Amino acid sequence: MARSNTGERQGGAATARGDGPVPLEPTPPFARRLRLLKWITVVVPGVFIFVLESTRHQVVEPFLREHGATGRLPAIPLDIGNLIVGLLAFGLAFGFSHLVFGVIEHMQRRLLRRNAELAALNAVAASAGASLRVGDIVAQAEETLQRLFPADSVRIDLTEPVVAGTGDVPDDGTSLAAGEMRVPLQARGHRHGTLRLTRSRGEFSRADQRLLRAIGDTLGMAIENARLHQQVHEAAVVEERGRIAREMHDGVAQMLAYVLVKLGTVDGLLAAGAADTARAEIETMRQAAESAYTDVREQILGLRLVTDGAPGLAAWLRTYLDDFAEQTDLDVTLEIDDLPPGALPRASELQVIRIAQEALSNVRKHADARSVRVRCTVEEGDLILTVADDGRGFDPSSANRQGHHFGLLTMRERAESLGGTLQIESQPGSGTRITLRAPLPTTGVSHRVADLAAAG
Length: 456
Hints:
Layout: E1 4-5, H1 28-70, H2 78-128, H3 134-148, E2 153-163, E3 180-187, E4 190-198, H4 206-271, H5 275-307, H6 312-328, E5 331-336, H7 346-367, E6 371-379, E7 382-389, H8 396-402, H9 408-417, E8 421-426, E9 432-439, H10 450-453
Parallel strand pairs: 1-5, 5-6
Antiparallel strand pairs: 2-4, 3-4, 6-7, 7-9, 8-9
Helix pairs in contact: 1-2, 2-3, 2-4, 3-4, 4-5, 5-6, 5-7, 6-7, 7-9
């Protein structure tokens, strides 16, 4: 009886490599001004005290003693002179402190304004990144901007991607009329639309323009990513349809053609009275029909698991291998790491699933094996999928020369689309091992905030 061991190996799953977002540091102009202010507050009081004390001891006190002794000036007690000098020093110190506090308040106001601008940019980026549908991105961005900006209307007009700098919208986002602002939504040299804001009272300030240009770049990148995602999805659909068509042609269609030929043979044998030979041909057709049925059932299972949205690669492998063991009467063993949630994008998971499905189909059709072992692990940031059987094996180089690829070429192409490699180890009489090694995508989010942070 077939045995399916799908026990999990706890732990061992490495998270995707990546250092994460780099914290935003003060920009050089702001940092230089802050450093200069620190040095002024430290050095100027010390220099002032030194100059004051030197003046009092070297100039004021000798002057008072000399002129008080000659009687040419009214006699001023030394304590009164020191008090006058002290009051003068206090006034100068107060003026200096007031100046420093004014500078600090000015820098604080600018810093708070920058923080508010960055918070607004972050809010728009978060709303734009919440979906991969262009319509959702536009609706959420308009709602967020209407809440953040005191504008009468906020509208995003989408266009087909065009080279930046063409059309009627300046790339610098300059206000085109009083109370109106148009900002291009562009990314990587292509404009994807225009952000339009109108305000009945007052014009948009330079700070507003700077912030809206950064928001335009962020929205342009989000829209471009959504459009690229849609293109990838459409390409995947076309590729999957092509794959199904090829498999139906190579499997079911050829098997039906074979059965039709055999039916003609059986008809001739029955007409000739060769009943025993006809029964043998019918048995051959029955076996062919069983093989075709298994192929179709295997493909339907793979499609159903994918389209039903099975929760991840691990769940798909467990379900598929349980059914595979039941169909083939093979001893199937699964060893799998707990993959972190979202470790692979859905499109990449689909490619890995197809590679595993093709490898297992080859085991069933060609290996004449008693057992198969599937191992899926994460090592040093790479996903490692291994399918190994104890079947008859084959010479990979000879199979390629003779044109019997057994889907190996397709599996290699799928591995390359993941940025990985496919290794095939086999020789006649020693089984086959197929190993996929694909890098897990790194994580990290970056937003264009240079224009905002480089405050003048």
